[in-house]
C-alpha cells in the first residue's frame, strides 16, 4: 500500500472517523479543525470528545487550526465539512493545494444558494481539481467506523484511475470500498437519503411502526431516483451503497442525526430548538429546501420531500402531512418509479 500524506478538512464525527481509517492504513494524516481547542485536543490528547465521545484516536493523527498548514504538501485533500461551508473552505485552500493532489469529499448535501452538488462547488472554486476528484458515500455511521465495525462505502469519480487510487488508499479489513463511475448518482443518493431519514424519524416519533418505515424507504427511494435521473444519474446507482444502502442505515439507526431530529419533530419539538440542542450538522434540513426547489425546476414529483418541507418550514402538523401523503390520488407503482403520472 502507498502511504500518502493526507489533509482531512473537518474535525466533526465523519472527518475524525475517516482520519482514523487513513491512519490505520499507514497514511500521514493532518486534520484541520475550525476551533483551536479541538485541534489541540486531537493533536495532543488523541480524543474528540464532542463528536466521538470516549474514543481514543490513533496517536499518529495530527491536527492543526491553520487551513494553509493543513493542506501544504499533501497528496490527498479530503473535504468533510458541512455542505454549506464547502465553498468557503475550498476557496481558502485552493491556492495552497499541491499540483496533482487528489481531491476527495465526503459531504452529503447540496449548496443551498445554487442547488449545486458538492463536486460542482469544488470545481467552481478550483477548476484544476476537475480531473482528480472523487466522492466517498454509502452507509457509514462515524460512531461504528471508529470502532472498526465492518463498513462498506463507494467512491465515485469520472476518472476510473482516481476512483481506484482512492479505493486503495481507503480500503482495509473493516472498511470495504467499491468504485462507481456515476459521480452524480452517488452524490445525489447521499444527499437525498437524509430527507427520507428525517421523515422516518418523524414516523417513529408519531409511534408509527414497521409498515410506515418500509413505505417511506421504498417510496422515498422512488422519489430519490426520479430526481436523480433528471439530474443525470445512472438509475442503478440507487440500488447500490449510495442509494438503498445509505437509506437503510439512515432510516433505521438512532446514530443518524437526521433520524433523531425527525424523531423529535414527530414528538412535537420545535426545529430550531432541536438543531441547537443537537449541536451537530443535520444536512437533511437544508437538503429538503434544495429538493423542494429542484423538484419544481425539473418537474419531478417528490411527495415525501414536499410534505417534510411543509413540516419543517410551514409548521404543518406531522399527522396532517401523513394524512395528505396517504390520500394522494390513486397511482400505479411502476409508472411512478418511471416518472410517468396520470394528471
Ligand atoms: N457523521 C457521519 O456518520 C457521517 C457524516 N457524513 C457527512 O459528513 C459531513 C460532515 O458531517 P459530520 O462530520 O458528521 O459533522 P459534525 O456535526 O459531526 O461536525 C461538523 C463539523 O463541521 C465543522 N463546522 C461547522 N461549521 C463550520 C464552518 N462554518 N466552517 C468550517 N467548519 C465548520 C464543525 O466545527 C465540525 O467539525 C456532512 O455532510 C455529513 O452528512 C457522511 C457520512 C457519515
Ligand atoms: O450519512 C450518514 C451515514 O451514512 C450519517 O447520517 P446522519 O448525518 O443522519 O447522522
Automatic annotation (TrEMBL):
Main location per the UniProt record: cytoplasm
Cellular compartments annotated: Cytoplasm
Gene: gpsA
Identification of the protein by name: Glycerol-3-phosphate dehydrogenase [NAD(P)+]
One of the record's GO cellular component terms: cytosol
Reaction(s) catalysed by this chain's protein: sn-glycerol 3-phosphate + NAD(+) = dihydroxyacetone phosphate + NADH + H(+); sn-glycerol 3-phosphate + NADP(+) = dihydroxyacetone phosphate + NADPH + H(+)
Glycerol-3-phosphate dehydrogenase NAD-dependent N-terminal domain sequence ranges: 6-162
E.C. no: 1.1.1.94
Record GO biological process: carbohydrate metabolic process; glycerol-3-phosphate biosynthetic process; glycerol-3-phosphate catabolic process; glycerophospholipid metabolic process; phospholipid biosynthetic process
UniProt keyword Zinc, yes or no: no
Amino acid at each position: 500500500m502507498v502511504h500518502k500524506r493526507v489533509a482531512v478538512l473537518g474535525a466533526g464525527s465523519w472527518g475524525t472517523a475517516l482520519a482514523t481509517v487513513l491512519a490505520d492504513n499507514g497514511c500521514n494524516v493532518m486534520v484541520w479543525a475550525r476551533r483551536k481547542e479541538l485541534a489541540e485536543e486531537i493533536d495532543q490528547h488523541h480524543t474528540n470528545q464532542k463528536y466521538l465521545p470516549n474514543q481514543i484516536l490513533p496517536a499518529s493523527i495530527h491536527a492543526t487550526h491553520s487551513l494553509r498548514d493543513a493542506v501544504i504538501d499533501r497528496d490527498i485533500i479530503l473535504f468533510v465539512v458541512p455542505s454549506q461551508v464547502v465553498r468557503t473552505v475550498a476557496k481558502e485552500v485552493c491556492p495552497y493545494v499541491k499540483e496533482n493532489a487528489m481531491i476527495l469529499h465526503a459531504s452529503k448535501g447540496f449548496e443551498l444558494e445554487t442547488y449545486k452538488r458538492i463536486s460542482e462547488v469544488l470545481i467552481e472554486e478550483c477548476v484544476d481539481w476537475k480531473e482528480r476528484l472523487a466522492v466517498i458515500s454509502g452507509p457509514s455511521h462515524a460512531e461504528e467506523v471508529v470502532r472498526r465495525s465492518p463498513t462498506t462505502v463507494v467512491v465515485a469519480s469520472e476518472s476510473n484511475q482516481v476512483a481506484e487510487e482512492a479505493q486503495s488508499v481507503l480500503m482495509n479489513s473493516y472498511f470495504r470500498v467499491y468504485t462507481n463511475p456515476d459521480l452524480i448518482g452517488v452524490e445525489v443518493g447521499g444527499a437525498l437519503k437524509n430527507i427520507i431519514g428525517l421523515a422516518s424519524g418523524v414516523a417513529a416519533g408519531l409511534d408509527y411502526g414497521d409498515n410506515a418505515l418500509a413505505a417511506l424507504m421504498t417510496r422515498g427511494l422512488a422519489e430519490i431516483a426520479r430526481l436523480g435521473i433528471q439530474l443525470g444519474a445512472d438509475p442503478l446507482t440507487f440500488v447500490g451503497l449510495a442509494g438503498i444502502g445509505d437509506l437503510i442505515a439512515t432510516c433505521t439507526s438512532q446514530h443518524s442525526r437526521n433520524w433523531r431530529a425527525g424523531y423529535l419533530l414527530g414528538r412535537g419539538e420545535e426545529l430550531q430548538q432541536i438543531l441547537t440542542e443537537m449541536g451537530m450538522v443535520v444536512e437533511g434540513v437544508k437538503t429538503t429546501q434544495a429538493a423542494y426547489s429542484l423538484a419544481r425546476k425539473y418537474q419531478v414529483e417528490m411527495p415525501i420531500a414536499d410534505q417534510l418541507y411543509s413540516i419543517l418550514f410551514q409548521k404543518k402538523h406531522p399527522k396532517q402531512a401523513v394524512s395528505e401523503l396517504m390520500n394522494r390520488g390513486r397511482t400505479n407503482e411502476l409508472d411512478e418509479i418511471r416518472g410517468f403520472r396520470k394528471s
